[in-house]
Amino acid sequence: MKMNGSMASSAVVSTLVMFGWLASSLSSTGWAQPDPDWLPHDRNRPQPTVIEPATPSTQEQVGKAPSDATVLFDGKDLSPWASMDGTPTQWIVKDGYMECVKGSGYIRTLQNFGDCQLHVEWAAPVPPVGNSQGRGNSGVFLGLDRYEVQVLDSYNNKTYADGSAGSVYCQYPPLVNASRKPGEWQVYDIIYTAPRFQADGKVASPARLTVFHNGVLVQNNVELTGPTGWLGRFPYQMHPEKQPISLQDHGNPVRYRNLWVRELGKPGKKEFTLADALLDRYPGAYERGNEVTKENGQLVLKFNGVRFVLFAESPTHFFAKSTDVQCEFKSNSEGKVESVTVGVGEDGGQVLKKK
After folding, report:
1. Residue 260 scores a pLDDT above 90
2. Domains within the chain, CATH numbers bracketed
3. Residues 318 and 326 sit within 8 Å (Cβ to Cβ)
4. Which pLDDT belongs to residue 31?
5. Residue 103: what pLDDT?
């Protein structure tokens, strides 16, 4: 497989990032520190997990994700994706890529991600149509729709600096313009550190982004001031650490291929953002004075007078993070919720019928 210089550089960057040379420097509080539980050169310290590294793409051939990655698009179907409300997306799949359909809206992953390494390959339409922000415009969002790395045809296309390709939109212009010609495949390797919030909603540590565009560093661990809005810079609002990744419909037929993500930091359960229509079936009063409500798109269990925010592990199974509380909802053949089983710290649990 022959690679041009830019693709080879991108492959080197992906390999370095994959082995943690960059990711290990990030933590929820800034720069990571050596683990004090281990001596320098401790012979008993566990060895790093062995994985198969990524295979880089060329313009003609799609590469392969590393063996420990979650593949978000394999060139065949959009099953890991949905519209923002959880319904099937209208984006199309053709010749190994997916393409934005004008007016179809943003799409998001079903699975949620926090700190991660995200690999995205994209191509602007050819021949180019329009200019400035109207040419090859899309975007890669972390934190659902909050933190955008701009996708734009910035090849011989002047626009405001903090809206060009590789920018953290409305906050940080890219260090350089590393854009390829329209129609050529371009590569983003993004390191995302999710913001953390205190119980009162104050920011404990802000979101951070490192971005390589076609193998070139264009964002160097920048600290976001808050969400990346169009008409201004807005303050943070408290949200879960893990949320979907989304791609923007800006009316241009931008193409994407070979999307994969590696979760960084402490392993945990998989989390999903479910369709509103499904979540709306669960709230209500249950036996013994217990209750399920929906707040800011998430279910909340009020159990024995204690409030637990629930996270979806499947369409029927939810869990809390503050205490080992797990809930399994049961519906009848008509889809009407009949009960929820609440387990605390052990299998089984209490079956509470819905009133």
Report:
1. yes
2. 5-263 (2.60.120.560), 276-353 (2.40.128.50)
3. yes
4. 63
5. 93
Distances in Å between the Cα of 283 and the Cα atoms of 172, 280, 292, 300, 344 are 41, 6, 5, 8, 20
- pLDDT tens figures, 273-287: 999 999 999 999 999
Q: Give dist(CA 57, CA 121) in Å, integer.
A: 9
CA distance 10 to 186: 10
What's the whole-number mean pLDDT along residues 160-188? 97
- In three-state secondary structure terms, 338 is strand
Residues in contact with 350: Cβ distance below 8 Å, sequence separation at least 6, in sequence order: 341, 342, 343
Write the pLDDT tens digit of every residue in 149-171: 999 999 999 999 999 999 999 99
Q: What is the pLDDT of residues 40-51, one digit of tens each?
A: 999 999 999 999
Tokens representing 267?
Answer: 């392993």
Q: Which phi and psi (to 5°) does residue 17 adopt?
A: -65, -40
d(CA 243, CA 114): 7
> What's residue 16's pLDDT?
46
Q: What's the CA gap between 244 and 219, in Å, rounded?
A: 22
| Angle subtended at Cα 141 by Cα 261 and Cα 105, rounded to the nearest 5 degrees | 115
Pairing, β 92-94 against β 97-99: antiparallel
Nearest CA to 180 out of 129, 219, 220, 124 is that of: 124
List, in sequence order, the alpha helices (H) in 171-287: 276-279
